[in-house]
Amino acid sequence: MANELLFFMEVLVGGLLAGTMYSLVALGFVLIFKASATFNFSQGAMVFFSVLAFCGFMQDFNIPFVLAFILAALLMVVVGLCTERLVLRPLMNASEDTVLMATIGLGYVLEGLAQAAWGVEVRRLDLGIGDFPVPWIADNLKLFISALDITAGLVAAIMIIGLFLLFKYTKIGLGLRAVADDAGAASSIGIPLKHIMLLVWSAAGVVALVAGCMWGARAGVQFALVDLALKALPVLIIGGFSSIPGAIIGGLIIGAVEKILEVYIGPFFGGAIEGWAPYVLAIFFLLYRPEGLFGEKIIRRV
């Protein structure tokens, strides 16, 4: 019984650590949704583009790790600037559907640019963190949890907390919340919408880079990161598209549920249940609580 409980705890903790990474990716979606009320379908491509550029700087140009990361982060700021100037600004008064289609097109552009510049082969990313159980935890708690998973969870948690504090307690965050509530009213009182959009897209780009590094260290830097990042969609449906706390809780729920189901129920379905179980859970929420756990309920009057 004790061994079964320890194994369950090991699976649960592993799922929660993976969930922090889903939360980090979802946070990029939330930031852009709060600023433009549009789901950014290019976020997965941003993850792939940023981490592939990071690997390219290190492996093709022999640039040191820290400098390569800084250059990749600056590149994502440039991507944010170009997105604001070339895509969003011309569509300032366009419908939400039009902006949504523009983000889909932007995603394909980023995917093509990344592969044209750095190639299509899978790249190995070594962050200097071993993918092996931490000895102290294994010896004292009898839980075999990877050092890479723990590091990824800590990095994701630090970034999530930092961004939460930035947008909760600073003037920048106040401006973002004002734009999210009513962009027209925010603009009329002097809040610079262009600067807010640039900041949000740049922040989403840096978040995508960090998330891509963590996922790339485990699975390799490859095109599959685009689809992996889109697993943040069930996270957003569960947590709420406009809620930063919702992105955190939703990610933890998805991470824990998919791991537990994969281990305990997956064998009855031939395995690979974690690939589709989050979407089944998301459908359940769409049917019974479409606004998510922390989203704003829309009350329609007839």
Oligomer: single chain
Number of helices: 13
Alpha carbon gyration radius: 20 Å
User: What is the structural class?
Assistant: mainly alpha
Helix content: over 70%
Task: Examine the secondary-structure arrangement and name the CATH architecture.
Answer: Orthogonal Bundle
For the record, the count of structural domains works out to 1
Largest sheet: none
The CATH first-level class comes to Mainly Alpha
Anisotropy-based shape: globular
**Beta-strand residue fraction:** under 5%
Question: What can you see in these coordinates?
Answer:
By secondary structure, the protein is mainly alpha-helical. The chain has a single domain, classed as ABC transporter involved in vitamin B12 uptake, BtuC, CATH 1.10.3470. The chain has 13 helices and no strands. It has helices at about 1-35, 45-60, 65-90, 95-120, 135-140, 145-170, 170-180, 185-190, 195-220, 225-230, 230-240, 245-265, 275-290. The chain is globular. Residues about 300 have low confidence and may be disordered.
